[in-house]
Design goal:
Layout lengths: L4 H4 L1 H6 L19 H19 L1 H5 L7 H4 L6 H7 L13 H6 L7 H17 L20 H30 L10 H4 L2 H6 L6 H15 L3 H12 L8 H12 L2 H25 L1 H4 L1 H7 L8 H9 L5 H25 L6 H15 L8 H11 L3 H22 L12 H26 L9 H4 L18
Length: 475
C-alpha cells in the first residue's frame, strides 16, 4: 500500500487544500501515472530549470567574469575543458612531458576524470572531429578564447548536462524504491532547489547516483552490490566511502558478519578496480588528488575559513588537516555510540546522513555543490517537507552568498572583511545542524521517525535487538 504524502506530511496536507484537500479513501488511481513516473517528470522539470539558470553563462561560453557571479551561473566544466587538456584529448593520467608541461593534472578522483575524458571524446566526435594537431604549438591559455574551442565547450556542456540529467532521473528512481510503499519520500530530491542550482557546477552527480544505488541495494538485501556501489562512489568522490560506517553499525547490532565482510570486500575491490587504470598509466598523476587535498588550507565555505578571517589568523594546512580529521573521528565515534545505544537499529540513510554531515561540518572546504552529497541521504533520513525546506533554504542562502563573495560584492567599502559571507557560512552550518538534531532525535526516539511502521512506533520502552529484531531492509 502506497502512503499518500497528503496523509503523511503536514506541509503537503496543508498545501493540498488548494486543490481540494488530502486524498480520500475513494480516490482513483491513474493506470499510467504511477508515483515513480510523476517523480521522474518532476525531476526532469527541476533539472531543466537548472539548465535554464545556467543559460546566461552558456550564451557567452562562460567568458564574462562578472556575469558568472552576479547571475550565479558558474560551472567548473568549461574552464577544466581547456585547463586540463581535454580540448586536446589528453589522458588525465598521462606522464607525457609535453602534456604535463602545458596542463595541470586533474585534481579529482578517477571516476570523474574518466567521465570527463570520455565526454571530451564525445564532444570532439559531435564537433566533427576537429584537427587538434595545430593546438599543440599554441599556448594553452589561448585555447579558451578560440572560436572553434568555444563551440566545443558549449557541446561539452550540453553532453554533460544530458548525462547529469539522466543521473538525476536514475537517482530519483532508486530513491523512490528504497522504502516500499513510500516512493513519495523521493519528491524532496526530485523538487530540490539545490539540485537545480548546483547540478551543473561539477561532476558530483556521478557520486550521488552511486549513493542512491547503495541505499537501494541495501534495502533489497544485497550487501555485496551495496559494497560495489560504495567503492565505485569512493573512486568518484570520497564521501560515499563514509556509508560503510552505517553498514558497520547495522551489522554490529544485528551480528551480520557475513554481510559486513561482503560489503567491505566488495567496496575495496571496486575501488581498486576503478583506480587501477589511472595508477598504472601514471602513478604520480594519480596521487595528485590526495596531495592536492592534503596541501589545501582553509577554503571556501568552511568553518575554518570563517575562523581564519574573523580572527585574522591563518591556519596551516597541517593544522587544519590534523584538527578536521580528529574532529571527524570523534564525530564518527559519536555516531557509532548513538547507533549501538539506539532503542532499535537506525536506518541506513540516517546513519549515512549523520556521518557525511559530520564530514562536511568540519571539512576545510565546502564548495557550493557539496550540498548534493547530503541530498539523497537527507530526503530519506528525514522525509518531512518542513525540515527539508528549512535545510535547503539555508543552503540556497549560502549558494547565493558564495558567488557574490567571489565576485567581490560582499566586501564593505571601508574594509576587506566580508561579514555577510561569514553570516552565510553560519546559516549553512545551522541548517545542517538543525537536520542533524532531528535525525538524532528520530534515532533515539523512533516514534518520531516518519518511516517506522506502526507496530514499532507503538513501542514505548527501549527494547534490545535480540528481543525484537529490526531489519532496515524491510522498511
Amino acid at each position: 500500500m502506497t502512503t499518500s504524502p497528503t496523509e503523511d506530511d503536514p506541509v503537503v496536507r496543508s498545501v493540498s487544500e488548494v486543490v481540494g484537500g488530502p486524498v480520500g479513501p475513494r480516490a482513483g488511481r491513474h493506470p499510467w501515472w504511477t508515483a515513480t513516473r510523476v517523480l521522474l517528470l518532476l525531476t526532469a522539470c527541476t533539472f531543466a530549470l537548472g539548465m535554464v539558470q545556467k543559460s546566461s553563462c552558456y550564451d557567452d561560453t562562460w567568458g564574462d567574469g562578472t556575469r558568472r557571479y552576479t547571475q550565479m551561473c558558474y560551472s567548473d566544466l568549461p574552464y577544466l575543458y581547456t585547463g586540463r587538456g581535454l580540448a586536446e584529448l589528453a589522458w588525465p593520467y598521462t606522464d607525457d612531458e609535453q602534456v604535463r608541461g602545458r596542463y595541470e593534472v586533474m585534481e579529482y578522483p578517477v571516476g570523474i576524470s574518466y567521465v570527463a575524458w570520455g565526454t571530451a571524446w564525445a564532444t570532439h566526435w559531435l564537433a566533427g572531429s576537429p584537427d587538434i594537431e595545430p593546438r599543440y604549438s599554441r599556448p594553452a591559455g589561448e585555447l579558451f578564447g578560440d572560436p572553434e574551442v568555444q563551440e566545443e565547450i558549449r557541446i561539452f556542456m550540453v553532453v554533460s548536462a544530458l548525462l547529469f540529467a539522466a543521473l538525476a532521473l536514475l537517482s530519483t528512481w532508486l530513491l523512490a524504491g528504497v522504502h516500499r510503499g513510500r516512493p513519495w519520500d523521493a519528491a524532496a530530491f526530485a523538487l530540490a532547489p539545490v539540485l537545480a542550482l548546483t547540478g551543473l557546477v561539477n561532476w558530483d552527480l556521478l557520486a550521488v547516483v552511486l549513493v542512491a544505488g547503495a541505499l537501494w541495494a541495501w534495502a533489497r538485501d544485497r550487501p555485496v552490490l551495496t559494497g560495489v556501489l560504495i567503492g565505485a562512489g569512493a573512486a568518484t568522490k570520497l564521501f560515499p566511502l563514509f556509508l560503510l560506517g552505517g553498514v558497520v553499525v547495522i551489522c554490529l547490532r544485528e551480528r551480520r558478519w557475513r554481510d559486513l565482510a561482503g560489503a567491505t570486500l566488495a567496496a575495496v575491490a571496486a575501488w581498486l578496480a576503478l583506480n587501477l587504470p589511472g595508477w598504472v598509466s601514471g602513478a604520480e598523476q594519480w596521487k595528485v588528488f590526495w596531495t592536492f587535498n592534503s596541501d589545501r588550507g582553509p577554503d571556501l565555505g568552511s568553518v575554518w575559513l570563517l575562523l581564519a578571517q574573523a580572527t585574522d589568523t591563518w591556519f596551516t594546512p597541517h593544522t587544519v588537516n590534523l584538527w578536521s580529521w580528529a574532529l571527524f573521528g570523534l564525530w564518527c565515534l559519536g555516531v557509532l555510540a548513538l547507533g549501538l545505544r539506539a532503542p532499535v537499529t537506525p536506518r541506513f540513510a540516517q546513519l549515512g546522513f549523520l556521518v557525511v554531515a559530520g564530514f562536511l561540518l568540519v571539512n576545510k572546504v565546502y564548495s557550493p555543490q557539496y550540498v548534493l552529497w547530503l541530498l539523497p541521504l537527507a530526503v530519506l533520513a528525514r522525509p518531512r517537507w518542513r525540515d527539508q525546506l528549512v535545510w535547503q533554504g539555508c543552503e540556497v542562502v549560502y549558494f547565493a552568498a558564495v558567488w557574490w563573495y567571489l565576485g567581490g560584492f560582499l566586501s564593505p567599502s571601508a574594509g576587506d572583511d566580508a561579514g555577510f559571507y561569514w553570516l552565510a557560512i553560519a546559516i549553512r552550518v545551522a541548517g545542517e545542524l538543525y537536520l542533524v538534531a532531528l535525525v538524532v532525535r528520530d534515532v533515539l526516539r523512533p516514534q518520531h521517525d516518519p518511516v517506522r511502521p506502526p507496530p514499532l512506533v507503538e513501542q514505548r520502552a527501549p527494547v534490545s535487538v535480540v528481543e525484537i529484531p529490526y531489519d532496515d531492509r524491510k522498511v
